[in-house]
Amino acid sequence: MDISISLSDADLKLFVDGMKSAQKKVDKLDPLSIVGAARKLLEDTTGRTLPDFVSTRMKHVETMIEMVEDAGFGLPEPDRENVLAALTYFTSPDDIIPDNVPVLGFLDDAIMIELCVRDLKPEIEGYRDFRFWRDNEASRRGVNAAELMLTRVEWAEARRVEILERIHRRREESYTGGKWSPLLFHVH
Fold first, then answer.
1. Which of 44, 109, 145, 157 is at a distance of 20 to 30 A from 174, taking alpha carbons?
2. pTM above the 0.90 mark?
3. 16: closest CA among 85, 97, 73, 100?
4. Structural domain boundaries of the chain?
């Protein structure tokens, strides 16, 4: 059975207020405790029969945990605090719908995860790009990605070099394309 819900601005305000409350708690909590509680939530939900709308969103919690823990990625502090606030909300058993309510206990968490993923989309996409690059770099070097200590600075430099090479390659292809066109610049 499919059920579709629409959230009004008043409904969304409950989630905004919940996130503001979580953001206030983050300063008072140890990041390791927050991450530990988030990992425990994932462990507690693993193997449980959860509605698909919840289980598909729980995967994002793992990504958020990895973003916070990944020293190589070096998530900037304001972004890190936002992710920790999201994790704090998810791990609170007394959120909008208590987690122990059968079937619906994680509904509010799933909605909040969806809202956070939308808000954190640039950070999550950047992290996934970084991991993809690091995994490829580890493969190229023949080492385990978990043991490869590369940073975002190295990633950014590799991307810069890649972009410059692509620019020069495209420029060269335009010179050798067979069509004549007036050139203002010529790459030597």
1. 157
2. no
3. 85
4. 9-130, 152-180+184-188
